[in-house]
Amino acid sequence: MKRVATFRPGPVFLGRLGALLLGCVLFLAVAAPVVAPFRPTDINLRQRLLPPAWEAAGNTRHLLGTDNVGRDIASRIIWGSRISLSVGLAASLLGACVGSTLGLCAGFFGGWTDRAISWLIDVQLAFPFTLFAIFLLAVFGGGFVPVVAVLALATWVNFARVVRSQAMSLRAQDFVLAARSVGVGTPRLLRRYLLPAVLPSIVVVGSFSAAQAIMTQAALSFLGVGVDPTIPSWGAMLDLGRNYLQTAWWMATFPGIAIALTVLGANLVGDWLSLRLDPRGR
Amino acid sequence: MLTRRAFGTLLASAGVASAAEVPQVVIASDEDVTTLDPHLIRNNHPIGSIIWSVFDSLVRRRPDGTHEPRLALSWEQPAEAVWRFHLRPGVLFHNGEALDASAVVESFNRMNRSPFNGESQLWQQTNLLRVTAADSMTVELLTDGPSVTMLYWLEEAFVGAPRYLRETPAAQVGVQPVGSGPYRFVEWQQGDHVSLTANDAYWGGAPAIRTAVFRTVPEQSSRLNELKAGSVDLVPGLDPDSSGGAESALSSAVQVAGLRKMHFGFSQHGVAPLRDRRVRQALNHAVDVSTMVETLQRGMTTRLASVINPPNNDTGLPPFAYDPHRAGQLLREAGAEGFAVEIAFDAKYSDSQESCEVVAAYLQAVGLDARVTAYETGHFAETLRARAFPGLYFYGFGALIEPLVELVIFTSDAVDNASGYSNPAFDRLVKRAAQTIDETARNALLRQAERMVWEDAPWLYLWHLPQIYGQARRLQYQPRPDDYVEIYRARLVA
Amino acid sequence: MAARAPAAIFQRCLHGIAVLLGVSIATFAVAHATGDPVTLLISASASEATRAQMRVHLGLDQPVIIQYLLFLRHALQGDFGQSFIYRQAVATLVLQRLPATLLLAGTAFAIALGISIPLGVSAATRGGWSAWLLQGFSMLGLAIPSFWLGLMLVLIVSVWLRLLPVDGYGGLSHLVLPAITLSLQSIARLSRLVASGMREVLRADYIRTARAKGLLERRVIWVHGLRNVLVPVVTMAGLELGDLISSAVVVEVVFAWPGIGRLAVNALGQRDFPLLQGTVFIAGLGFVLINLVADILCARIDPRIRLA
Predict the structure, then answer these.
(1) What pLDDT is recorded for position C2?
(2) Residue range of the domain that includes A174
(3) Which chains touch A (3+ CB pairs under 8 A)?
(4) What is the CATH number of the domain that holds A96?
């Protein structure tokens, strides 16, 4: 009789891999001025469209080649990590705050609060998000704050749903009822008793939300909605590389790999966190 | 399930690809066709190219700048402010209506109404007062003062079928064009392609190519791929970087001397330093345009030697050499060191960004705080019209050979004077030239004006936009130096 | 149960309408949030007369509530205004492009199902290389940006290998690359879902019963196990299809697929707000409908599910 295989290859290994990837990106982002061989805006016309160093026409000064005005691709990727990480973290944090608060209230209070917030969640999920993001950013323009706000709009729902269902099951638990009977006020109850209980889930969702935010920000800058015109975002580099696909494939290839590795790192860390902090599995 | 039903319907309606080998010629473009209304031409290609094939105008300019008679057989000027055109007899519109003077009047008057007068410039540019039918085959145009450039502006004054224009709602006219041109409109699949078929009843004889398809292919690599594979025959608007990608057994890159004058305009209604001529000259010296031509344009074009296109330009004008030292000097003299300036470009054009970033770097090298800003197309066009740029703006203009028109845009009240450059002495010169009928005298005045404006540097002079086409080897066609594709002049190699 | 079903369906419909109202409020609010809907919704090149007409039509001199009701009424009549760039009714433009997006999303979904179900079942029952493959898909599928993958596919398949046409809309060969690109994320999610669902199901009592009865292993897996796994898959299907339509935006841009995603991005580039607003609203409407249909189908498949 065949056994049903429960196959989970090395979750610890994967978790460490994810942490390593994220750690690298974080390091690059922080140490960019020191690590990057060039500034992201250093133009050098005579060195334009150089292929990566390992190709015949390449140059070891420009490991990953140069773009259409001679800027070093590797340096731009290093600098670009600043945008991806800062936007990803900010959006995730903002989404966590808003989403968790709403989710707690919905789960704990129930009734009309719950109905209203659930309705909001459903409306949000009813939107094809990318289109709505385009619409919002067309109206409010690009830039750090609008983009972070829109990305937080994408992620708050994840937090709200998870926290809501946890809060619903927690509110009937003994320790809560006990605290209530002793006379603990609601705000304190939420803050001191429920919040710590749902915190692990928030962290898990946070990791995945950061990944989602980084990916979505790259997509938005690919579509032309930028954050900072002086620092190249990876998505914007992809957009530029699109026009040079035939003549300079490296312009589009490497930024994409950077996005993939960062998002992968965040997802792997999220997977590992979810195992460690929330063994019931979400 | 939704998918299967939709899939089936679409396959059926779109027609499976690779139908019978109809010898059709496919012309690719990166922009979408937004409307086929003859009086709302937004771009030279593909909209202009299609309109030129479906409609006709009184005269058309040849690539060398002279004018050939089309709907008008002959013309004369009985008085300074009067133009009389004699129409070609026996011309029919695609829906059977006949061409006569009243049809021309109908179309011309339509161009003067909103919203068409936003795009069609005939009335404003020629100071046209009235269009009348002197008799059934003679049209008379009355202008406010002499209009030397009337023929130039008549070229895009297209004549549509009069009753059709009158009786059909404007939205429909834009979707189903009815003209008298060498091609009839067949279909427009929005976002994808426009199909035209040869008009056998055309007065100039049916064009050699029976079916012309204008397809929208936004990705450059796709356009080139299809060109090399043979599914596209003509790809206009290649740039030097990608022109190599057009070479294959089935296709090649064809270059014609470009005419569009690329430049950075110095807005006179923006930051104060730009109003000082020394600053403008300094910025011209600060940028190494020759290197930009060599590298960004791969040496496939030439620097602007004048504001007037060859062969009519004064070849003795001194170019602004790359001299950052002199630039710094001039800036110091003018007391304008280190000021902040914005460099604007239309976000639609990706190679605009490239040039802007390079120029920003050069300006920063002489101490200016230069920032590049992307404007979305509508906003850019509006700001251009309103002359409201705060600093520099990247633009290309004047892909034509007509010295007076090329100079008129620098006059203070010219509609296209996007920089707001205003020099009363220059205005007077040009006005005099416009009213001088004697050619030699006029040319002398034009030369004077040319030198005056060149040295005053209302622009940061760049280069002529290289005009490179990817062309199938089976297509025999001489491309134009502006972007229009006159597919009715093409034929297939036997 | 038979008596409960119509009531439950009715409740879902009510819920759907409530969500739709929320969608309409959001779509309306965005344009008016800047406090100056005039510049957004009326083309700058419009004549004064046209502007005045539009102001009355939109009720811009009236209180916000009236404006919203007007907006709603127009929306129900299918009137979303005119696009600046195309000078045609927005609804016409969107509905013209909608089938293309649905075709793309639908094909991607079909591909995803076609790969996820066998892969998930195989990973759950046999493990080995299929489990590795699934792991790979679920890791990479969610990390690789679809627009990058699309570009790489264009580069490899069309530029270097010259195998398939790169873009446009002309038949099966044009659909392959964009559909495959779009399906990757779905494969990642669905295969994980199928695998974990199968694992749970196979542990269940009635499976042991079937095995004890001596039924063939294959029949056990495919007939009994899969039928029950399909429930969560169908539940997810609505959301997944919706996700696909949303993700189709970037894929449409990369492959120049003439769907509503590309239309919206063009509208973004030209600040064509009526077109954007109409696209978002109609897409939202579509979403709600798809999810409603999925919910009802769910109830049909598994009457144990209460549509409360």
Answers:
(1) 47
(2) 13-31+67-276
(3) B, C
(4) 1.10.3720.10
Cβ–Cβ below 8 Å for B222 and C87: no
Token pair for residue A175?
Answer: 């320790």
Residue B234 CA to residue B29 CA, distance in Å, equals: 9
Nearest to A131 among C143, C146, C280 (CB): C280
Percent of chain B clearing pLDDT 90 (strictly above): 52
Which residue pairs from B120-128 have beta carbons closer than 8 angstroms and sit at least 24 positions apart in sequence? B120/B39, B120/B40, B120/B41, B120/B156, B120/B157, B121/B153, B121/B156, B121/B415, B122/B153, B122/B154, B122/B156, B122/B157, B124/B415, B125/B149, B125/B153, B125/B415, B126/B150, B126/B153
Residue from A86, A133, A99, A128 nearest A206 by CA? A99
| Tokens standing for residue C16 | 């759907």
Residue A140 contacts B, CB cutoff 8 Å: no
Looking at the structure of chain A, the number of domains it has is 1
pLDDT score of B20 more than 50: no
Task: Calculate mean pLDDT across residues C214-233.
Answer: 68
Average pLDDT over residues A264-268: 93
Query: Does any domain span residue A79?
Result: yes
Would you say residue B17 has pLDDT above 50? no
Enumerate neighbours of C (3 or more CB pairs within 8 A): A, B
User: What residues form DSSP beta bridges with B98?
Assistant: B92
**Chain B contact for A44 (CB, 8 A cutoff):** no
A80: confidence class by pLDDT, cuts 50, 70, 90:
very high
**Spatial distance between the Cα atoms of C66 and C72, rounded to a whole number of angstroms:** 10
C-alpha A156: how far from chain center: 12
Is pLDDT above 60 for B489?
yes
Convert the pLDDT of each residue in B56-96 to its tens digit.
999 987 767 678 899 999 999 888 889 999 999 999 999 99
Higher pLDDT, A6 or A97: A97
* A5 inside domain: no
Query: ipTM of the predicted structure?
Result: 0.85
Across the interface, do A122 and C19 touch by the CB < 8 Å criterion? yes
Q: How many CB atoms lie within 10 A of CB A149?
A: 16
Nearest to C152 among A6, A122, A253 (CB): A253
pLDDT score for A38: 92
The H or E element containing residue C21 is helix C4-33
Q: Which residues of B touch C294 (CB under 8 A)?
A: none
CB contact under 8 A, C171 and B17: yes
Residues 206-225 of A with CB under 8 A from B: 224
Say yes or no for a CB contact (<8 Å) between A134 and C264: yes
Asked if C99 and B221 come within 8 Å (Cβ–Cβ), the reply is no
**Which has more confidence, C265 or B6?**
C265
Report if residue A177 sits inside a domain: yes
pTM given for the model: 0.82
Position C43 pLDDT exceeds 70: no
Measured CA to CA in angstroms, residue B492 lies from B23, B82, B110, B477, C75 at distances of 9, 43, 37, 8, 50
- Cβ contact (<8 Å) for A128 and C284? yes
The pLDDT of residue B6 is above 70: no
CA-nearest residue to B374 within chain A is: A229
Residues 6+ apart with CB under 8 A from B28: B215, B216, B217, B223, B226, B227, B232, B234, B235, B236
Cβ distance of A4 and C142 shorter than 8 Å: no
More confident residue, B291 or C89: B291
User: In 3D, which of A231, A238, A247 has the Cα closest to residue A50?
Assistant: A247
Give the one of C124, C145, C242 whose C-beta lies nearest to A256's C-beta.
Answer: C145
In a domain, A46, yes or no: no
pLDDT at B159: 93
